[in-house]
């Protein structure tokens, strides 16, 4: 097996049907077109899935935002970033001060007999939290507290009288290959709305850090923090006294499918010094391919690539502005009459260039300035099975 993809239908009703997918490809098979083929298969499979309520199907995937090729691939299929998440970690080197709780509140070790109360508090705490459905008892048991890594001896309940008002669910993952220590995770920490802002989350966090430290299981490694109420401004302060690192993050990207139509618009997204150009494939005239073949040595000298004699034309929603001081193939360098601007980019994770003549950039060329012509070392249409109307993304400025 060289690749696999898992498609998950949300078991909980939503206004629109949420579908998530996960994929993996063997490193030796990356950048050979499997990424696009698997993604297109997911899209096709979701279109065929039954949708009884008639609302759009929303597909979600996640990936490391630093893996620009992965982001560009999914954006090229019409996905758009909707949330950025961070996994934070903290060293367990010294004890943490535990703040004083309100007089009506105390922290208790996890009580398995109160599992239903803990679930109710969890759902109450995370109601409205993006991307998280209301959990049933079965989902709670199978995914949160019934998994082998759940540690009731390290998990906490915040109690007011006999009621559960907050939970801190902690896991310890087994020792991974190449590591000498297991990983500790604060898998979920939340407080019901009426008790927020009173130091309950602070106290659970501090107690958890101290409990993990006392066990000695994780030294000298990190305790990781995953699911929290950080989206709520009243909860973020509980992390401020800690020395946190953010070594990993991921972006959740989403696309909407409605019947047989892909709802995606062309766009130019500015992200610092990086531009993501999103547009649709269309047929070109074919002239550039001839000139690439004739001037192959000149283009190799400028780009470091032996360019395929042909370009992929992408129509954007607005004109593409050339960056300042971009590389150029001047007409006098080859005793010709046309100078060409060369802008490095990536498409489907592959190094490529945007080629644009001065005449086109002035608005007097054969193509409008909304068209960008992409050249690389392969024929993109054939390699990725592209057709006119397909949505793709190009990243400029990596």
Q: What is the global morphology?
A: elongated
- Based on the coordinates given, report the CATH architecture of the largest domain: 3-Layer(aba) Sandwich
Average residue-wise pLDDT: 76
CATH topology name of the largest domain, in short, is Aminopeptidase
* Helix-strand pattern: EEHEHEEHHEEEHEEEEEHHEEEEHEHE
Instruction: Give me the Rg, rounded.
Output: 26 Å
Instruction: Give the C-level CATH assignment of the largest domain.
Output: Alpha Beta
What percent of the residues sit in helical stretches (DSSP H or I)?
10-25%
Range of strand content: 25-35%
Q: Look at the helices and sheets and give the structural class.
A: alpha+beta
Biggest sheet record: 11 strands, mixed
Tell me how many strands there are: 19
User: In DSSP terms, counting alpha (H) and pi (I) runs of 4 or more, how many helices?
Assistant: 9
Number of domains: 3
Poorly predicted tracts of residues: 227-273
Q: What is the distance, rounded to the nearest whole angstrom, between the alpha carbons of the first and last residues?
A: 32 Å
CATH superfamily of the largest domain: Gcn5-related N-acetyltransferase (GNAT)
Can you characterise this structure?
The structure is a single chain. This protein is of the alpha+beta class and 398 residues long. The protein has 3 domains: 3-84 and 252-262, 3-Layer(aba) Sandwich (Aminopeptidase), CATH 3.40.630; 97-241, Gcn5-related N-acetyltransferase (GNAT) (Aminopeptidase, 3-Layer(aba) Sandwich); 267-396, Elongation Factor Tu (Ef-tu), domain 3, CATH 2.40.30. 22% of the residues lie in helices and 34% in strands. It has 9 helices and 19 strands. The two termini are 32 Å apart.
